[in-house]
Design brief:
The protein is built from eight helices and 17 strands. It starts with 7 loop residues before the first helix and ends in a 20-residue tail after the last helix. The strands form four sheets. It has an eight-stranded mixed beta sheet, with helices on both faces. It is about 30% helix and about 20% strand. The chain has two domains: about 190 residues, Fructose-1,6-Bisphosphatase, Chain A, domain 1; about 140 residues, D-Maltodextrin-Binding Protein, domain 2. By secondary structure, it is of the alpha+beta class. α5 packs across α8. A hairpin with a 3-residue loop joins β7 and β8. Bound molecules: 6-O-phosphono-beta-D-fructofuranose. 6-O-phosphono-beta-D-fructofuranose binds next to loops. 6-O-phosphono-beta-D-fructofuranose (F6P) binds next to loops.
């Protein structure tokens, strides 16, 4: 029992409901929490709930849809449709945005979400999450058009994620810091357990999928090589590496103890600017991270200032502890200016073991 501790509703009443559209935004975030509770219950049943395994379908990204992807998408869409607080929704699991229509009521916001991120992890019982971004809909209450969704991340009025791990957490920002709530399963309330999260500015921990190393750009290779060289390299200290392949879990770890997460641009598929999606992965996570004192960049520009051109657009993502992200941005600048020799391991130097 957590009597006397602050619930999500109490937090929203105190911090959101007095602002412009605040009461509606607070109510919308309560709807997000309701969908998250449903997904949490479903995913916690595992194989017993019959929701593990794949569908025979692929999403617009060409990825095989898991049953839980589809059920989670339905949980969000139905909750938003019934809630009367959004004019339309867009999701990783739907080719096109979906306008709210009669008999449902349109509200003043747009919700963009990834209902179940990292879903390749479901069958392995590894943490997964949901990510959401809230924008203002155009005034007038008409059916939202594509350009209404394609707004830079700086225009988000709220963003956050749910992490379905050993505990279910909801981390949100309405532009007044980043706050984490833990689900008390017995009572059914989200309780404020992580107020005003601050990402440490420095870190010794990086997260990147190194199987893509041969496709990276030189500034990323330089940064990771320097980390790997540890005490014997130019950074003169050892680094640790983590890769869960579940962005929500990765970002949450960084919020709690610092770190840098990189899914950089690479040449693996030249038609894509990165792996992660701008509208429902990069933008909301960037707002969460920046509100917690971190940085989020493509390496060359602030992610939240990128003007989107497509709803399922991909982008390079480098986020986390501010001094490390700033360093990677500096390496991109130096590279683009023709400066900054990539660091080579001492093993490969003139006097090293493996002379070229
Ligand atoms: O869709 C995104 C995602 O599942 C992220 O949650 C995760 O960070 C990334 O893809 C994992 O990518 P990879 O399969 O290349 O490790």
């Amino acid at each position: 029992m957590h009597l006397g501790r602050k619930t999500l509703s109490k937090y929203l009443i105190e911090n959101v409901s007095g602002t412009k559209d605040g009461a509606d935004l607070a109510a919308l975030l309560v709807d997000v929490a309701a969908a998250v509770k449903a997904i949490s219950a479903l995913s916690a049943k595992g194989a017993l709930g019959g929701a593990t395994g794949s569908m025979d379908t692929t999403n617009v990204q060409g990825e095989t849809q898991k049953k839980l992807d589809v059920l989670s998408n339905t949980a969000f869409v139905n909750t938003f449709e019934m809630g009367g607080l959004v004019a339309g929704v867009a999701s990783e699991e739907m080719d096109d945005p979906f306008p709210v229509k009669e008999p449902h009521t349109r509200g003043p916001f747009l919700a963009i979400f990834d209902p179940l991120d990292g879903s390749s992890n479901i069958d392995g019982n590894v943490s997964v999450g949901s990510i959401f971004s809230i924008l203002r809909a155009a005034e007038g209450g008409g059916e939202p058009q594509m350009e209404d969704y394609l707004k830079p991340g700086t225009q988000q009025v709220a963003a956050g994620y749910a992490l379905y791990g050993p505990a279910t957490l909801l981390v949100i920002t309405v532009g007044k810091g980043t706050h984490g709530f833990t689900l008390d399963h017995e009572v059914g309330n989200f309780i404020l357990t992580h107020p005003d999260i601050q990402i440490p500015a420095d870190t010794n921990e990086y997260a990147i999928n190194t199987s893509n190393e041969r496709f990276w750009e030189p500034p990323v290779t330089r940064y990771i090589n320097e980390c790997k060289a540890g005490k014997t390299g130019p950074r003169e200290r050892d680094f640790n590496m983590r890769w869960i392949a579940s962005m929500v879990a990765e970002v949450h770890r960084i919020l709690i103890r610092g770190g840098i997460f990189l899914y950089p641009r690479d040449t693996k598929d030249p038609s894509r600017a990165g792996r992660l999606r701008l509208m429902y992965e990069a933008n909301p996570m960037s707002m969460v991270v920046e509100q917690a004192g971190g940085l989020s960049s493509t390496g060359r520009e602030r992610i939240m200032e990128v003007v989107p051109t497509q709803i399922h657009q991909r982008i390079a993502v480098i986020l986390g502890s501010r001094n490390e992200v700033a360093r990677v941005m500096q390496y991109h600048q130096e590279h683009d200016a023709g400066k900054g020799e990539p660091f080579s391991s001492p093993l490969f130097s003139d006097r090293g073991l493996f002379r070229a």
